[in-house]
Amino acid sequence: MLTNYIKIAWRNLIRNKAFSAINILGLALGMGCSLLIFLWIQDELSIDRYHANGPYLYNVMQRQFYDGQVQTGRFTPGILADELKRQFPEVVYAAGYTGWAANVTFAAGEKINKETGHWAGADWFKMLSIPLLAGTPATALNSPNSLAISRKVAEFYFGNPVAALGKSIRIDNKNDYQVTAVFENLPETSSDSYDFLLNWYDCLTRNPWMKEWGNNGPHTRIMLRSDNNGGQVNIAAFETKLKPFLRKYNKDIGKSFDAQLFLQAYPDGYLYSNFKNGQQDGGRIEYVRLFAIVAVFLLLIACINFMNLATARSVKRAREVGVRKVIGAVRSILAGQFIGEALLFTVLALGIALFLVFLALPSFNSLTGKHISLQTIQPSFWVGLVVMTLLTGLLAGSYPALFLSSLEPVRVLKGTLKFGAGARFFRQGLVVFQFVLSMLLIAGTIIVYRQVNYVQTTNLGYERENLIYVPVEGELTSQSNYKTFKDELLRQPGILAVSSMQEAPTNIGSSTGGVTWPGKDPNVNIEITQTAAGYDLMKTLKVKLTGRDFSPEFGTDTTNYLINEATAKRIGYKNPVGQPITMWGKPGKIIGVMQDFHFQSLHIPIAPLIIRLSTEPGSQNFLIRTQPGQTTQALASIESLWKQMNPKFPFAYRFADDEYQKLYKSETVVGSLANYFAFLAIFISCLGLFGLSAFTAEQRTKEIGVRKVLGASVSSIIGLLSKDFLKLVLLAIAIASPLAWYAMNEWLQGFAYKVALSWWVFALAGVLAIGIALLTISFQSIKAALMNPVKSLRSE
């Protein structure tokens, strides 16, 4: 019997080629998109989950209470790690880690190259599951001149990891470091990214400010002790002891602000990175949840499409069901047959879906920045496919199976088959559901596109186009060479202005509470973002300024300051220029007020900013403004001059525009993916609408014939068949619009600066949905309206 059913299913598939192709294509697209999304979700959930000590690893976090606000992040004092190990028996290992990447010049023999890495504490390799190809975890970072490098770096400079051990590498043409360990290249599932690590005490020596308890910036990672039963210490109890820890060391805490330590599980740091009012408030996990819902929606739309198409063909199968019931077939057997056919369609669709995923993965990886592959050698991959196939086949085939198996053989064989209101409403409900989901995706896509476009084109308050960053390093860190290089640059064609800045203007993150002024409330500690810069900064950035910029003509500018409008407003000065202000105990004057400009992500409101003059160019970046249309020529000039004055350092540069775009990589990726998935959702939904319109036309064939005989025009027939479907689409628009408004309003709350949720967005989404529906329906409607009534009435 089973063989017979398989043969029947295959014959039906072959006999109705168009019906089968549409069904299989719809399921294949739905399953393929869902599979892609699930692979992406699996990759996201695997980040930082590969460490053997994962359950015991934590990032130490800090809440700082400033002026009625709470700042939360991984920033901690640089000497915190060692003190935690001394003070708490619960802490087995602890290591400091620079949250900022160092891009330095390595030189070994004749080979010179730029490498990116960090500084880390001696316990780093003891905590984390990073395989060492040479060296040991105990000695990898245990001395000030220790250097751990990746396999890639070892092979570039020395040929292989073993040959690299014990060798010397000169960094920034200043200090020699000994290779004490070679580690395997970090896996794609690591949120950390580095090709070398230097000893933590080397970092403290380079940055004396990190030795003070009142200064924060580095990260601290710890590993807690496990009990004898394999469990771990009581986290809540440990955090209670950890919370007031800084008060013992930081004399400022308790006067005008407070600082509290707490823990975040290290594997959670990647997905749960956002905090609001000191509490965890999402992060990338929101996108994981969003796309999980999209994957389920796409699969549901594909299954609904199958249901509608199968129902549209039910009249063709009704007599078959009647005959089978007459000769003794029971309902369960018939239902099993139709579900089996659905599973056959699903298996065929799965094969096509896997092929489509294979073709799409390179482009998908390029778009998302991932390295996802089909894990065909993993049993879990095949188990997942089997589960998805069974669920999809059962869901898609359930309604057609139950519906067809319920037909009464007497009515079917007499030719009086009619479908009740319940069945009609159910099918119409499926169409409404499909278009609600499609409307949500269309409206969401439009709003995401508008927000991403707003982010990319908004006026930041300075001109990021034609602005180049070049690190100040090597011979150029001396004042005389810095000035010579700058003067020579200004003589080159295509270069308009040159300045320098400690941090890139696209992402200034350092802040201080050490700014005071006459009349400031001593009981209120105000956090102000700060950075250092050279002369001609405003001219180079093209920021509007009231007052004047730093100038070599004023020797006192070393103690003078530039502030932005937000700082002036917070201070309360009506005419700030010339007013006194003190930073870190150095009194000076405000010489200029900058128009507020965005120096951080648009997710964050513009904060108070103060800029001090730095005459020490080391650890800064040249900001070079080029003439529009002459950037290529200017870069060639800069590189030529660089090689003359700084030959031992490779020339490296970054465009301000590119650095800005990196701040919104996640939003850009989400926008692109939303475009593709919305298009596919609409396409699959239209297949379902096509099925329902075909079913309706088939059911009303004789009615249409009678109307035409009585003189009905083609246009009136088309209108008759189309209006019912348009009612369904309009109902879907009415349901989806408030849902889309709520969902996108929630998403936009993550931006301090955002587009408005205008009514026309939802109207446009509705018009698009109606237009697409009309195009889909029109084919069947016109076909039915043009049919010869003689053919439809001849059997009467």
UniProtKB/TrEMBL annotation:
Occurrences of domain MacB-like periplasmic core (ranges): 20-196, 462-636
Pfam families from the UniProt entry: FtsX (PF02687), MacB_PCD (PF12704)
Stretches assigned to the ABC3 transporter permease C-terminal domain: 293-409, 677-789
GO cellular component labels: plasma membrane
Swiss-Prot/TrEMBL keywords: Cell membrane, Membrane, Transmembrane, Transmembrane helix
The keyword Cell membrane appears for this protein: yes
Entry's transmembrane regions: 21-41, 290-312, 333-361, 381-404, 425-449, 676-697, 725-744, 756-777
Protein topology in the membrane: Multi-pass membrane protein
GO molecular function: transmembrane transporter activity
InterPro entries: ABC3_permease_C (IPR003838), MacB_PCD (IPR025857), Macrolide_Exporter_MacB (IPR050250)
PANTHER family: ABC-TYPE MACROLIDE FAMILY EXPORT SYSTEM PERMEASE COMPONENT 2 (PTHR30572:SF18), MEMBRANE COMPONENT OF TRANSPORTER-RELATED (PTHR30572)
Name used for this protein in its record: ABC transporter permease
Organism placement in taxonomy: Bacteria, Pseudomonadati, Bacteroidota, Cytophagia, Cytophagales
